[in-house]
Specification:
Shape: elongated
Number of helices: 15
Largest sheet: 5 strands, parallel
Oligomer: single chain
Helix content: 40-55%
Length: 413
């Protein structure tokens, strides 16, 4: 045990040091309050502190010990010739745990020191166990979150194989939401990106022919329109039953709600995360739909601005400055021609549809779909070997080029 002795009298320090060393403790001395604070550390187990000293007195030293988060729990025994009630109250207010009067009685010092050291030892053990529990909790939380994220990614990949038309949108919507969060400097952006990944799951309940006509801007019956409009609620109902996905479910459900004018203005970051997520998704999903139907970036922004209170003004401003070209393609990706056999997961986006035959056949993957491990497996299983040598257009990261800045319209030149 390490004990710091503080007194301006060398003789007192020598006597106290001998007593404590005879008890098996390590005694360190300081001749002033300033020296004591310099020598004090979180490894100090007890402080024996004189009250009357030149410079900083014992009360001031005790107060500074208590104000320092690293030393605030170190027990302090005031060693003093002062014995009146006012002095003791001042010592308690300053942070003293106990008192002992000069001349010091060795037995009394031993009893008081051992009592406080046992308390300190118990407190240290509690802190150690608490730290271990916090580390274990953090590790478990990280494991659960990674498992959840991996499960969601796998689910989205599988659904992408089932319905390429719908789930090619997922990657694009997620990229738009990510850029919106960056432009708006929103905290905890991962939760909005997570909701974007899951936002299209409800389309599995809609017939493929209705889906095809909707995304190609063909006419739908009133019943089919209601069917399409219900997909966010279907998605939310599915997700609400899964632990830790309730917030994402609220965001997805809320994207279809009609909001009043007061919801389209004001400080965005101070709103409820579920409301923020719903507004982000509404803008990203509608933007992507219009881009996929052939509109340019500027034209889409004009359409969204004319929609009145449907979109938050700050989100429209952020959407104006996302890094895309006039076709809506990310400017940090460049077009390339690669063989199907050379496609790489997680770093490429398809620049064209992939069919079982070059110009005909069954649709395997949609333009704009991110290349994933699941997609690579599907292509390998569905295409003959000679077809895997076919070249296709993709978007891939630009190698070591300076960042492209958008012009004032939000579109890269």
């Amino acid at each position: 045990m390490r004990i710091l002795l503080v007194d301006d009298e060398a003789e007192t320090l020598e006597v106290l040091g001998e007593i404590l060393r005879s008890m098996g403790y390590q005694a360190e001395t300081a001749r002033s309050g300033e020296e004591a604070l310099a020598k004090l550390s979180p490894q100090t187990d007890l402080v024996l502190l004189d009250v009357k000293m030149p410079g900083l007195d014992g009360f001031q030293v005790a107060q500074r010990i208590r104000k320092n988060p690293a030393t605030k729990d170190i027990p302090i025994i005031m060693v003093t010739a002062l014995g009146n009630r006012a002095d003791r109250l001042n010592a308690v207010k300053a942070g003293a745990n106990d008192f002992i009067q000069k001349p010091v009685d060795a037995v009394e010092l031993k009893v008081r020191a051992e009592s406080l050291l046992k308390i300190k030892e118990s407190q240290d053990e509690i802190k150690r166990q608490r730290a271990e529990l916090q580390r274990a909790y953090a590790a478990e939380k990280e494991l659960v979150e990674k498992t959840l994220q991996g499960s969601v990614r796998t689910l989205v990949d599988i659904l992408g194989l089932v319905s390429p038309l719908v789930f090619s949108r997922t990657g694009r919507i997620r990229r738009i939401v990510r850029q919106l969060c960056q432009n708006l400097e929103l905290p905890n952006a991962w939760q909005y990106e997570f909701a974007a990944m899951l936002s299209q799951i409800g389309w599995v309940a809609i017939p493929p022919d209705v889906t095809e006509r909707y995304f190609t801007a063909q006419s739908l019956s009133l019943e089919e329109v209601k069917m399409v409009e219900s997909h966010p609620a279907v998605t939310a109902d599915l997700l609400a039953k899964i632990p830790r996905l309730s917030l994402a479910a609220e965001m997805i459900r809320g994207q279809a709600k009609t909001h009043h004018s007061e919801s389209s203005t004001g400080e965005l970051r101070h709103r409820d995360p579920a409301a923020i997520g719903a507004m982000l998704l509404r803008a990203a999903v509608d933007y992507d739909l219009l881009i996929s139907q052939g509109m340019g970036h500027r034209e889409v922004l004009s359409v969204l601005r004319k929609a009145g209170d449907r979109y938050h003004s700050a989100i429209l401003a952020a959407l104006r400055n996302i890094f895309v070209d006039e076709t809506g393609s990310p400017v940090n990706l460049e077009p390339r021609k690669v063989r199907l056999s050379d496609l790489q997961a997680d770093v490429m986006v398809l620049g064209e549809d992939i069919l079982t035959r070059k110009d005909r056949g069954i649709l395997l993957a949609r333009k704009g779909q991110e290349v994933t491990p699941a997609l690579l497996v599907r292509l390998k299983n569905a295409l003959p070997k000679e077809e895997m040598n076919r070249h296709i257009q993709v978007l891939a990261s630009r190698p070591s080029t300076p960042a492209v800045q958008p012009d004032q319209s939000g579109v890269a030149e």
